[in-house]
Amino acid sequence: MHGEANKNSVKGTAGDEVLNLQLRQIELEKQNAELRKKYAELEESHTRLKDFYNISPMGYLTLDRYGLIQEANHTASNLLGVAEARLLNTELTHYVALDSKRYWLEQFAKFNKDSGNSSLDLVFSSENGTTFSARLECLHIRHPNGQSCVRIAFSGNSSAESMSQNLVKFRRKADDKKLLLQNVLDHAPIGIWMLGTDEKIKFINLTFCNAVGISEPQFKAANHYSDLLPPSVSINCMRSDRECLTQEGLHFSREYLPFVDGKDHLLEITKAKIYDHDGQLLGLIGLAADITERERMESGLKQTQMELRELADKVESWREEERKRIAREVHDELGQVLTALRMDVTWLDMKFSVDNPELRVKTVGMNALLDRAGSSVRNIIANLRPMALDVGLVPALDWLCKDFSERSQCRFVLQVTNDNLDLSEKFVVVLFRVVQELLTNTVRHSCASEVRVALEQQGSILQLTVSDDGKGYMYEQQAAITSFGLLGVRERVLSLGGTLKITTAPQQGTSVHVVVPMEGSKE
Questions:
Q1: Nearest Cα to 428, choosing from 515, 343, 521, 350?
Q2: What is the pLDDT of residue 116?
Q3: CA 104 to chain centre
Q4: d(CA 118, CA 103)
Q5: pLDDT digits (tens, 9 = 90+) for 190-199
Q6: Which of 38, 240, 388, 468 could be bridged to 396 by S-S, CB 3.0 to 4.6 A?
Q7: What are 79-130's pLDDT values in tens digits?
Q8: How confident is the model at residue 480, as a pLDDT?
Q9: How far is Cα 333 from Cα 319, in angstroms, rounded to an integer?
């Protein structure tokens, strides 16, 4: 019994030891996990510190007691212009400017003797040949093992110098651009000026000053530009200034201004309000173009166009008179000759054809030829001047529509609201020729099945519309479709003081609308 109790006691003691060992192992594993976590955090902190070390705006160097570089961050490498790998184990003296080498060696010798902080100014020379001055903060450290090192922090003022140089370059470029802009503005072919909210001239270019014979200092010194300009001119200018300042967008005006040549020049002026970055009104800017010569040329051109239209109108009148005269002569001369020939042929037929069958056949043939000749004469007379024109516009248009219907596959319809139009011969002839040209164009180009000619009087105007159901065309292509014909129509309408409008589209037909005033239509 006693032996068994001892055995159980031994077993219990061994089990407790195993349990304690297991608990100890678990505790050690926890400690190892904690240590690994701390180590990872330390590594991460070291990495962050190294990153900050490299991207710091300060250059950092570590020198041994011989002055050899043992460590260098990216900033130091960039300042010295040497790659980090090449910096290591090289003397810092190599990168010190020649004039500063002796001073550096003396100061470094002191660092090795004394501990603590020191400061000095030094001039470095980078490999690309540039030099820069730097403020060095030095810390001499002695390790417990007897080794020592010098840690240096420095920042070159090369960036400041570079910024200063860039600023100088920028200012120089700005000055150059300002000078260029001033030259451009001064020598622009138009007058340019700026008026402040106090109504004083803030800027005026040389072109304007030379034109009016007043210098820029005079303009700027004046309380108001009206003190320098004639009263009549000043009133107009100030009125347009007020209008510009009270409206949105551009302001346009035309004003006369006396120039140094002693003449009043017509200026086309554009004004606009100007604002600063905060939206505050600064004043207005004005541009003045001298359009005196252009206006003179335009006036001369208008006069020439008017004279040409009058000449064309006169030529058209002469042409109509000549057509009328020729038609009358053809009717009188050829008509009489053909009538006499027909009478002679009839006499021959009655006198000799009874006993002479061959003569009978010949006289029949001659009468047929005389009929053809008479028909040709009537067609020539109608083309020169239809007899219906002597009756009035409506009968002439009715004859014209019937004539076109007989000579084409298209149907021509005349619609008239007033059959008793009291028009002068000129109006009748011009409108007849307009319709004749439009119908001719329609037959040639429209492929229409029906054409309508509408004539309507509305008060003091006469409206004429020629429309078809043909293929139409793009309006911008009208110059390619009987351009001279349409040009002639337009000129004829303008000679009556009227207007012409064309409405057309592909497969939508064409409509020509003519409006002429009735004033003068009876003259």
A1: 521
A2: 76
A3: 66
A4: 14
A5: 889 899 888 8
A6: 388
A7: 888 888 888 999 999 888 888 888 888 888 887 777 778 888 888 887 777 7
A8: 42
A9: 20
Q: Output the six-digit token pair for 367.
A: 């009468």
Alpha-carbon gap, residue 368 to 365, rounded angstroms = 5
- CA-nearest of 433, 458, 473 to 515 is 458
Looking at residue 287, its pLDDT comes to 92
Structure tokens at 258: 């006396």
- DSSP-derived secondary structure letter, 334: I
Sheet with 59-64, edge to edge strand ranges = 69-72, 59-64, 148-156, 131-142, 116-125
The count of C-alpha atoms lying within 13 angstroms of the C-alpha of 470, restricted to the half-sphere facing its C-beta, is 26
Positions of the chain with pLDDT lower than 50, given as ranges: 2, 158-160, 163, 477-482
pTM beyond cutoff 0.70: no
pLDDT at 454: 92
Res 346: pLDDT: 83
What pLDDT is attached to residue 270?
92
| Whether the Cβ atoms of residue 133 and residue 123 lie closer than 8 Å to each other | yes
Quote the pLDDT of residue 332: 72
Question: Pick from 462, 438, 432: which is nearest to 451 by CA?
Answer: 438
The pLDDT of residue 157: 60
Identify whether the C-beta of residue 354 lies closer than 8 Å to the C-beta of residue 347.
Answer: no
User: CA dist 434 to 301, 472, 500, 515, Å?
Assistant: 26, 19, 11, 12
Q: Count Cβ atoms below 10 Å from residue 100 Cβ, excluding itself.
A: 19
Measured from the Cβ of residue 31, the count of other Cβ atoms closer than 10 Å reads: 10
Buried b (16+ CB within 10 A) or exposed e, 394-427: bbbbbbbbebbeeeeebebebebeeeebebeebb
Structure tokens at 195: 């008026």
Rounded-to-integer distance, Cα 463 and Cα 182, Å: 59
Give CA–CA dist 464/29, Å, rounded.
111
- CA neighbor of 420 nearest in space, from 400, 391, 442: 391
Torsion 434-436-441-443 (CA) sign: positive
Using the Cα atoms of residue 239, residue 240, residue 242 and residue 248 in order, give the sign of their dihedral: positive
pLDDT for position 432? 87
